[in-house]
């Protein structure tokens, strides 16, 4: 054990230590080493001596040695097919064809899937003009490996070179049963065309486009027919291709090829029809080439109208893409319909309208329906004004009204438009029935107003009265309705009825605009010159509200009555209003009353009356107050103006004390000024007015 360890240690080479690591003075590169080796030819071995065979015995001995070498190689590794091929080729070089066949057969037993083996075997037979043997090998090859196209190509080429056209055709037919790739079909078609067999080539194309149904193959088929002068057949092929692919698998290249074919045949109208048909059905992203070719065609053969059609088609495609992406984008539908209406037949416009209105908003909420309902409005107006079809217009209105969920909401516009349409068609009963149905299903203020306006135009006043009664039953708080009803009765001359309506209106517990109603009632009585009734109305109104405008209006009414004592009555109302509004917190309103009173006295009053009102005018004082933010915290101070009325100051002791202090301070200042100027006449300084005691 120790000896072996020692021996092992001796076998380990020692690494020489490099003492001097500095670069050598003369440097040498790898390139120089290779060049020197080439020059010296160190790796070249001398050729073996040539052996000359002089007799048959030496030849047999040579053959034996070579065969033994080949057999040994095969025995060592049977799967290396190159050894088998070299062996067979060596036998072939010695014209030992039978032995070569035997070797190839043995090799095929080892690996029959090797393509090179079959090719070398068949080439050997063909090289030695063994045609039947070659046919046998090709038959075996295509039977064993039918998906190897090389065998089929070689086999058909051999038969064609031998002039056996029928045999080659038979091989092609056997090949086509396997439905090979496209190039194989083209080879078969070219084979038939080389022998002027156009009908056979057409039959092959028929099978080809069904096995490989691509657009390019249909196009090749049509070009084949066109090339050989069969233009009707070519057109039929294109039409079949369009029908075959349908609308689901449309391809712009097919239509471009079809259009160019028709263009070559000078069929320009057909070309336009093809382009328009394709553009109507292919999406914009997939039709760029189509648009480009269509534009070029129109520039070459079209007029201004044709170029405009292209632009319209492009816009139509844009809108189609938008509405496909979002069918509920009603703005896109409006733009699309505007485009179609400007340049399309009635049927095409109707089709787009039907598609648009079919996309009903998914949620039954009015805000989602507001844009949608205008599709129906535009549809009906188009049918009536553009298409001149009253019956279809009626159907559109009825369909829209059936679609709207009236229990949740309605659109008065649709009902009124339908009624107005029926009136234009002189169908008054239909219009009344529609409006009556609308009021019964979904009463709205707008519907009542529209129906009443219609009956007013027809001078059907009894119907108007009934409608107003229904209207006020539906919305008794609507002051405008009461006023309009009373105005109608006034126009008809029934004053007592109008007055009764006003009385009934002001007695309602809840009104939306009571001030408008009272003003209208008062104006009504003024127009009837019922002064006492008007005065009573003002008194009744003041029992309900003490608003400053009511007092001012009352005073102005008394002034404008023109009767004796009207100025005194007006002044009396101002005084009464001032007393009433002393307890009012809104000081601006009280100031407004006093200013109105003062302007009245300026025009109709005496000097004493004016002074009296001036004494009632307040003093404007700037004050400060704390401001609080929304969260309750202090936000600092702000300045504001307040009004101090003399009557209020007299009732408040602290204000009286403040006024006396101001007066005393003023007197002190005047006294100090007099002491500083002794030459001044004491009579010049007058005492100030005494303060309130």
TrEMBL record:
- Superkingdom of origin organism: Eukaryota
Localization, UniProt: Nucleus speckle
GO biological process: one example: spliceosomal complex assembly
Q: Where is the composition biased (Basic and acidic residues)?
A: 667-683
- Segments of this protein annotated with the region Disordered: 665-693
The protein's matches in InterPro entries, at most eight in alphabetical order, are given as: HAT, HAT_Syf1_CNRKL1_C, Syf1-like, TPR-like_helical_dom_sf
Which GO cellular component terms, listed alphabetically, does the Swiss-Prot or TrEMBL entry include? nuclear speck; post-mRNA release spliceosomal complex; precatalytic spliceosome; Prp19 complex; U2-type catalytic step 2 spliceosome
* Sequence ranges assigned to domain Pre-mRNA-splicing factor Syf1/CRNKL1-like C-terminal HAT-repeats in this UniProt record: 82-361, 386-545
Q: Which UniProt keywords apply?
A: Coiled coil, mRNA processing, mRNA splicing, Nucleus, Phosphoprotein, Repeat, Spliceosome
Gene3D superfamilies recorded = Tetratricopeptide repeat domain
State the SUPFAM superfamilies in the record.
TPR-like
Tagged with keyword Ion transport: no
Tell whether Phosphoprotein is among the UniProt keywords.
Answer: yes
Stretches of the chain forming a coiled coil according to its record:
567-594
Q: What does this protein do?
A: Involved in pre-mRNA splicing process. As a component of the minor spliceosome, involved in the splicing of U12-type introns in pre-mRNAs.
- Family affiliation: Belongs to the crooked-neck family.
Designated name of the protein:
Crooked neck-like protein 1
Lineage, please? Eukaryota, Metazoa, Chordata, Craniata, Vertebrata
């Amino acid at each position: 054990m120790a000896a072996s360890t020692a021996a092992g240690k001796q076998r380990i080479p020692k690494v020489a230590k490099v003492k001097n690591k500095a670069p050598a003075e003369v440097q040498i590169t790898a390139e120089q080493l290779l060049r020197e080796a080439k020059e010296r030819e160190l790796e070249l071995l001398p050729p073996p001596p040539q052996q000359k065979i002089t007799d048959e015995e030496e030849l047999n001995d040579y053959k034996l040695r070579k065969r033994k070498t080949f057999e040994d190689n095969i025995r060592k590794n049977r799967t290396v097919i190159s050894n088998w091929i070299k062996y067979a080729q060596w036998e072939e070089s010695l014209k030992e064809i039978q032995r070569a066949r035997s070797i190839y057969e043995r090799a095929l037993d080892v690996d029959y899937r090797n393509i090179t083996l079959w090719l070398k075997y068949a080439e050997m037979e063909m090289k030695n003009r063994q045609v039947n043997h070659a046919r046998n090998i090709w038959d075996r090859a295509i039977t064993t490996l039918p998906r190897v196209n090389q065998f089929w190509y070689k086999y058909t080429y051999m038969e064609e070179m031998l002039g056996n056209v029928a045999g080659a055709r038979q091989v092609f037919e056997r090949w086509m049963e396997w439905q090979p790739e496209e190039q194989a079909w083209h080879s078969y078609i070219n084979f038939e065309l080389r022998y002027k067999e156009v009908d056979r080539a057409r039959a092959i194309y028929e099978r080809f486009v069904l096995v490989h149904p691509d657009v390019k193959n249909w196009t090749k088929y049509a070009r084949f027919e066109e090339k050989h002068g069969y233009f009707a057949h070519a057109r039929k092929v294109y039409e079949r291709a369009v029908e075959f692919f349908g609308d689901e698998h449309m391809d712009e290249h097919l239509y471009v090829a079809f259009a160019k074919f028709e263009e070559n045949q000078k069929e320009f109208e057909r070309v336009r029809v093809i382009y328009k048909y394709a553009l109507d059905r292919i999406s914009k992203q997939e039709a760029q080439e189509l648009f480009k070719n269509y534009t070029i065609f129109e520039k070459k053969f079209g007029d201004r109208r044709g170029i405009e059609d292209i632009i319209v088609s492009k816009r139509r495609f844009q809108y189609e893409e938008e509405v496909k992406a979002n069918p509920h984008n009603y703005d896109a539908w409006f733009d699309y319909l505007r485009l179609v209406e400007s340049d399309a037949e009635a049927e095409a416009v109707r089709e787009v309208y039907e598609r648009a209105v079919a996309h009903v908003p998914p949620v039954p909420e009015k805000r989602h329906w507001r844009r949608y309902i205008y599709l129906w409005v535009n549809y009906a107006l188009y049918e009536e004004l553009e298409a001149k079809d009253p019956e279809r217009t009626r159907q559109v209105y009825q369909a829209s009204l059936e679609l709207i969920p009236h229990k949740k909401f309605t659109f008065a516009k649709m009902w009124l438009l339908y009624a107005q349409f029926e009136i234009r068609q002189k169908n008054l009963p239909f219009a009344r029935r529609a409006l009556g149905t609308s009021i019964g299903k979904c009463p709205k203020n707008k519907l009542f107003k529209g129906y009443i306006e219609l009956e007013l135009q027809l001078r059907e006043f009894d119907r108007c009265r009934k409608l107003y009664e229904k209207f006020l039953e539906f919305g008794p708080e609507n002051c405008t309705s009461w006023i309009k009803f009373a105005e109608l009765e006034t126009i008809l001359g029934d004053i007592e009825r109008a007055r009764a309506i006003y009385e009934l209106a002001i007695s309602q517990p809840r009104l939306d605009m009571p001030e408008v109603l009272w003003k209208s009632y008062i104006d009504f009585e003024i127009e009837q010159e019922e002064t006492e009734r008007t005065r009573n109305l003002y008194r009744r109104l003041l029992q309900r509200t003490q608003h400053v405008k009511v007092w001012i209006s009352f005073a102005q009414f008394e002034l404008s009555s023109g009767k004796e004592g009207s100025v005194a009555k007006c002044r009396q109302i101002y005084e009464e209003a001032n007393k009433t509004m002393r307890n009012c917190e809104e000081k601006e309103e009280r100031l407004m009353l006093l200013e109105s009173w003062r302007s009245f006295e300026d025009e109709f009053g005496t000097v004493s009356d004016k002074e009296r009102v001036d004494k009632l005018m307040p003093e404007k004082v700037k004050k400060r107050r704390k401001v609080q933010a929304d969260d309750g915290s202090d936000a600092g101070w702000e300045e504001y103006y307040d009004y101090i009325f003399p009557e209020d100051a007299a009732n408040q002791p602290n204000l009286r004390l403040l006024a006396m202090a101001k007066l005393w301070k003023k007197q002190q200042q005047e006294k100090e000024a007099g002491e500083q100027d002794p030459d001044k006449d004491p009579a010049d300084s007058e005492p100030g007015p005494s303060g309130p005691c």
